[in-house]
Amino acid sequence: MKFLILNGPNINFLGIREPGIYGKSTYNDLIRTITDYAVTRGVDVTFYQSNCEGALVDAIQKAYYDKVDGIVFNPAAYTHTSVAILDAVKAVSIPTVEVHLSDVNSRDEFRKVSYIRQASIAMFAGHGFASYTMAIDCLIDHINGSK
Q1: Phi (first) and psi of residue 102, to 5 degrees
Q2: CB 79 within 8 A of CB 98
Q3: Which of 124 and 80 is assigned the larger pLDDT?
Q4: Catalytic (active site) residue 27
Q5: Catalytic-role residue among 22, 37, 80, 127
């Protein structure tokens, strides 16, 4: 199985950005954690992070042509604003799991709105890096259950 781990704005600033909310671990720590876990699950993962909405849409469309089996996606701030990202996920029909490091539902009111959730098979939030590993497990179960 081949999964794309897609991250939106400011995820590259983990460890710097609001450590009281996101912790002191870095984006490289996140990549290492996911890579190590994916190996144990027999999943090939590729990573992409961008602060630009259009680049994220391009990455989703590229995943279609690359025949990616699933997407683990932390759209970050675009969760709450991007119809373009929602439309891209709908267009490619690749099983996608929305993830967030923090519990978005217990934060600002506007963070409770998620456009991407409409096109996601599941959402994991508030578990830190484990949100990503939970999403990997969810995608594996979804793909194996649909065969």
Answers
A1: -95, 170
A2: yes
A3: 124
A4: no
A5: 22
What pLDDT, on the 0 to 100 scale, is given for residue 111? 63
Alpha-helix residue ranges (DSSP H) falling in 23-103: 27-41, 53-65, 83-92
pLDDT value at position 110? 59
Q: Which is the catalytic residue, given 64, 78, 80, 100? A: 100
| Catalytic (active site) residue 48 | no
For the chain, give every domain's residue range: 2-145
Second-level CATH architecture of 2-145: 3-Layer(aba) Sandwich (3.40)
Q: What's the Rg (C-alpha) of the chain?
A: 14
List own/partner pairs for 90-95 with CB under 8 A and 24 or more apart.
Answer: 90/118, 90/119, 91/60, 91/61, 91/64, 92/60, 92/61, 92/63, 92/64, 94/60, 94/63, 94/64, 94/68, 94/69, 94/70, 95/69, 95/70, 95/71, 95/121, 95/139, 95/142, 95/143
Q: Please state whether the predicted TM-score (pTM) of the whole model is above 0.70.
A: yes
pLDDT digits (tens, 9 = 90+) for 96-119: 999 999 787 756 665 667 889 999
